Amino acid sequence: MRITHSGEDDNLKRLLSFSVSALKGDCGPFDINGTTDIDNRAKELVFERTRYVYNDALEFFENNFLSDITGLGLDIEMERMANETI
Length: 86
Prior knowledge:
The protein is an all-alpha fold. The chain is 74% helix and 0% strand. It has 3 helices and no strands. The radius of gyration is 14 Å and the shape is globular. It starts with 8 loop residues before the first helix and ends with a helix.
């Protein structure tokens, strides 16, 4: 999204927050400001989902990124389970 002005800032922030919420609901908790592999993968998916929403093509996001979404969700759950056993 090559936006060179600040007129879209509020809308993009809103779309980004919606994408964070949606992916946390689909995959599990992550830290959008974190630096782990999981956090970075989640952040990339947030940006991609937001791009689809911005371009009015959200209905294509899940099919195009299904393996990434599923993989992230599994990794988040595996990490959660590993942390419970400690």
